[in-house]
Amino acid sequence: MNNLLRALMLTPAALLLATAPALAQSIDERVNEIFASSTGWFVSLIFSPFPGTNFPWIVAWLVIAATIFTVYFGLIQFRAFPHSIALVRGDYSDPNDAGEVSHFQALATALSGTVGLGNIAGVAVAVGIGGPGATFWMILAGLMGMASKFTECTLGVKYRNEYEDGTVSGGPMYYLTKGFDERGIPAGRFLAVLFSIFCILGALGGGNMFQANQAHAQISNVVGDYPGWITGLVFAAIVFAVIIGGLKSIASVTEKVVPFMGILYVLTAIVIILMNADKIGWAFGQIFEGAFTGLGIAGGFVGALIQGFKRAAFSNEAGVGSAAIAHSAVRTKEPITEGFVSLLEPFIDTVVICTMTALVIIITGQLISDPNTGLYLLNEGGTAIQTVDGNSGVALTSAAFSSAFGWFQYVLAIAVILFAFSTMISWSYYGLKAWTFLFGEGKNKEIVFKVIFCVFVIIGAAANLGPVIDFSDAAIFAMAVVNIIGLYFLMPIVKAELQSYLSRLKSGEIRKYN
Amino acid sequence: MSRKIVLGFDDSESAKSALAFASGLAKVEGADLVIAHVLEWSPYSFLTPEELEERHKRRKEELDRAEKALLGPVIEELGQQGINASTELRYGHIAETLCKIIEETSASQVVIGRTGHSSLSSRLFGSVAGSLAQASPVPVTIVP
Q1: Nearest-CA residue of chain A relative to B100?
Q2: A343 to chain B, minimum CA–CA distance in Å?
Q3: Which residues does A contribute to its contact with B (CB < 8 Å)?
Q4: What phi, psi does B5 have (nearest 5°)?
Q5: Which segment of A3-7, A85-89, A162-166, A416-420 scores lowest on mean pLDDT?
Q6: Is A25 in a helix, a strand, or coil?
Q7: In DSSP terms, which residues pair with B33 in a beta bridge?
Q8: pLDDT over 90 (residue A468)
Q9: If exposure means fewest CB atoms within 10 Å of the residue's CB, which of A251, A435, A442, B47 is most exposed?
Q10: Do A255 and B48 make contact, defined as CB atoms within 8 angstroms?
Q11: Which residues of chain B neighbour A94 with C-beta distances below 8 Å?
């Protein structure tokens, strides 16, 4: 904590130092430099490896948690899967609650916050660095993550605040405070504050800068290179209009278009995979072989594993606690039902959509391998696999899709922009909830956060991918550190809810309406 | 138990004509009126996180408004005319929900205005009156 404080105090100094010699540089370069130098300490703290290895402790933290929840709840993600779908279809919804937030709506909103660049750009990063084998670990992490999501979303609904006027606020900061109090465990409030700080950073990082950054990459990929701060300004203006100007129409149009973009994306991926049907077997061969040998990638199979786990967590946010904020608004008498519904989220996000992206990149031959050894060739720095045109991130996905359909790069550009935008809107909300938890509700306080949020849109679009992605990951994973500690202490409560619900479901006390 | 007539009611002009027609009918037949107002709602629509948060509050407001501004005055007026009337205020797909109300109240017929608000959307998706005429379990009167 001391290190943290010292670094926080050093940040302004670092900003000044970095600015001085950079006057001659372009705005983009300067932003990038300042950004990289002021966030580096945080990134290395979160991603520091276990002594003597190159395995980051944070990845182990997430995977161990997901495994513990999976075991503790007896493979709940598979047992409850059919029931989850029945809940989303509204089979168990009381008709008298029509007009309230349905399970479907809570799931759709949470999904539009998570489905986004993680699925398009993040997977490309994972496969580009970790090779096809990263896909295997990504799917595994997605399946396990379902149990983490189940735990946190159940708690999110159970301990949400319902106010006089009928609005609700929920999320880790509320279950950390209220749940810990209920069980008589100290420090709940402290963890809640810590979570809120990280949530604000995560909202500004992965929920904002990473999105702006990749949206810019995608646009300049299509229309040609131009300075990032221009995209940043335009995006910031639109985000400003929505979250401060109250221009709801843009947000609701995006909310409606995003699901269709998601479906179009998956369908196109399926078509491309089917067009290369003869290579499906080979692609899965690469995925399995790469998962355990690495096929010559930097860091071997551990490298593939780290990349897969990292990008899965970043994409579906299981264990991070963000989804618990979005799911809290659902109308239900049984908090556990929202847990069931939320476990579909990592499945759709990671197991379905991310896998599609990975398969398309592999199957269209974007990654260059040595024809003699079958091992992948690395780029000059040895940091990533060589790709056909030297692409990485969203450009790699774009190249893979447009190798089959030239026009798809335009669709993808629009999809990326919309996904980026809807993720920003969702995260601006998550960040705001954390902000108001810390500083209290109030119009002026909210506007301060929203303005900061808009400024970071510009920074994100102007900075390079490397520092942005590092900081985004670090901030989001920092949320998971606090959230998962909370989940460990509160998981007996979820288990009690689960047992009570399942027995009432069996006895017929909980019945179907439709 | 006297016969029941369901009236699909909203704030449109044609709903007022339908009300006049239905109350005349109720008087002649000595039937009770069920004034049904359905707020268009799909549990499968997409909302932003802010809309989710405020949904419960908005729903309350919408129901209050419908109760006070729309249904209240009608009930009062019908009472003065000596007609027994009750109200049904629901969320859902309008035609489907009206059919449900007809079944639940065992009404013998249903009256609805030929809304015709927006001709474009009704041409694309079919008007409420049109779908009710097709789906209703009892005779339907559509009032222009």
Answers
A1: A95
A2: 18
A3: 90, 93, 95, 98-102, 104-106, 108-109, 112-113, 165-169, 248, 251-252, 255-256, 258-259, 325-326, 329-331, 425-426, 429-430
A4: -120, 125
A5: A3-7
A6: coil
A7: B5, B85
A8: no
A9: A442
A10: yes
A11: none
How many CB atoms lie under 10 A from the CB of residue B119? 9
Please check whether residue B65 touches A, CB under 8 A. Answer: no
Q: Decide if A255 and B46 are in contact by the 8 Å CB cutoff.
A: yes
Its ipTM equals 0.81
Name the DSSP letter for residue A226.
-
Measured torsion, CA atoms of residues B128, B133, B136, B142, in degrees rounded to the nearest 10: 80
Give how far A104 is from chain B: nearest CA, Å. Answer: 6
Q: B58 to chain A: nearest residue by CA?
A: A166
* B60–A99 C-beta distance less than 8 A: no
Minimal Cβ distance to B52: which of A90, A101, A425: A101
Put simply, the chain B residues between 84 and 103 with a CB less than 8 A from any chain A CB are 90-92
Q: Which residue of B has its CA nearest to A328?
A: B53
Summarised one tens digit per residue, pLDDT across range A216-256 is: 888 887 788 888 888 889 999 988 888 887 777 777 777 77
Q: Which two tokens stand for residue A199?
A: 């949530």
Dihedral through CA B37, CA B43, CA B47, CA B49, nearest 10?
110
d(CA A510, CA A512): 7
CA distances from A114 to A278, A318, A353, A502, B118 (A): 32, 10, 11, 29, 36
Q: Which helix (H) or strand (E) holds A218?
A: helix A210-223
Task: Read off the tokens for A364.
Answer: 């269209």
Q: Give the right CATH number for A60-92+99-503 from 3.40.50.720, 1.20.1740.10, 3.40.50.2300, 3.90.1150.10.
A: 1.20.1740.10
- The answer to whether the CB atoms of B47 and A256 lie below 8 A apart is no
For residue B46, which residues of chain A lie inside 8 Å, CB to CB? 105, 108-109, 112, 252, 255-256, 258-259
pLDDT of residue A69: 95
Whose tokens are 């299981």? That residue is A318
CA distance linking residue A395 with residue A389, whole number of Å: 9
Query: Domains in chain B, ordered, with CATH?
Result: 4-143 (3.40.50.620)
Instruction: Return the ∠ at Cα A142 (arms to A429 and A421), rounded to 5°.
Output: 30
Could you count the other beta carbons within 10 Å of the beta carbon of residue B82? 8
Interchain pair B91, A98: CB under 8 A: yes
pLDDT, averaged across chain A: 84
A-B Cβ pairs (cutoff 8 Å, strict): 87
Per-residue pLDDT tens over the stretch A328-360: 888 788 899 999 999 999 999 999 999 999 999
Which chain A residues are Cβ-neighbours of B90 within 8 angstroms?
Answer: 98
Range A172-178 contact pairs with CB under 8 angstroms and sequence separation of 24 or more? A172/A199, A172/A321, A172/A324, A172/A325, A172/A479, A172/A482, A172/A483, A172/A486, A173/A199, A173/A433, A173/A434, A173/A437, A174/A328, A174/A437, A175/A324, A175/A486, A175/A490, A176/A482, A176/A486
- Summarize pLDDT for B82-136 with one digit per residue, the tens: 888 888 899 888 888 889 999 998 988 999 887 755 555 555 556 788 888 888 8
Query: Nearest CA to CA, how far is A218 from chain B (Å)?
Result: 25
